[in-house]
Amino acid sequence: xxxxVAVLLVFAGCCSNVVFLELLVRExxxxxxIVTFAQFVFIAxxxxxxxxxxxxxxxxxxxxxxxxxxxxxxxxxVINNYALNFNIAMPLHMIFRAGSLIANMVLGIIILKKRYSxxxxxxxxxxxxxxxxxxxxxxxxxxxVSGDGxxxxxxxxxxxxxxxxxxxxxALLMSARMGIFQEMLYKKYGKHSKEALFYNHCLPLPxxxxxxxxxYNHGVLFSQSTPVLVPVLGLTLPIMWIYLLMxxxxxxxCIRGVFILTTECTxxxxxxxxxxRKFLSLIFSILYFxxxxxxxxxxxxxxxxxxxxxxxxxxxxxxxxxxxxxxxxEKAE
Length: 333
What we know:
Elements: H1 2-27, H2 32-50, H3 63-82, H4 90-97, H5 100-111, H6 118-146, H7 151-189, H8 193-202, H9 212-223, E1 227-230, E2 235-238, H10 239-264, H11 267-289, H12 295-312, H13 314-332
Helix pairs in contact: 1-10, 1-11, 2-3, 2-8, 2-10, 3-7, 3-8, 4-11, 5-7, 5-11, 6-7, 6-12, 8-10, 11-12
């Protein structure tokens, strides 16, 4: 039951979170740091009150282990959001991060010495090919758009895009490593998702001092955005602050579901659920926000999704269920 609830939280929270993130990024592409900071403050405050009982409850897992996890988590969160500064479109951002399935499996083989079936390797190959197609087509779009300016501007835009891709690749590998590290900790100390959620968001807060100038500047810009009336409260607030608040709340729902899921399933299964969620968000982003998406992008998306379904062995499960139903009918006759 806990697994089902966690999956529902992931899909509901994460899909709506992407909508508010895109609303923020469309207006201010460089607002990643203030978004990350707001999310961390909200989740840390909630955990400090309800999980640690205002700091009176001691952690079950040693803080030294959380420091390692937090370093990885903070790095992944900041880099993923900051990559949007480097000509990375939201659909490509989501497609590329779906590659966590590949990164998780590769690091699982290297670090945990895991071995998988041939179908698993084929599914990873499909996901890789799909992401490659989408990435190449997005690179072409960056070149075409920048081609309207000078050759120097086009080269500069393409270099910025490559830096963004490098950032996403690094964050992808770091995120997979963090998932494996979490799995090892839970095996050793037991499953404590709420505790991990708190420390992963509380301990990195001092790190935002390095980003304070950027956070302050975007706070000023947010305050200058169009004021709107909030129906229930009867208050007039700048629209960007409302988007940020909704982003923070939905992010909490999303990440709470992910952390519950990590206590119930292996890191690879968690990655699979998150990957499927990303594709639902991707489809919504394309249809609702009218993001540019060519036939090649659709092909790449279909290949990634096919690889994901192959990994889950959904067809095998359906076939087994049908065979079981046939056997029951034969016995009944």
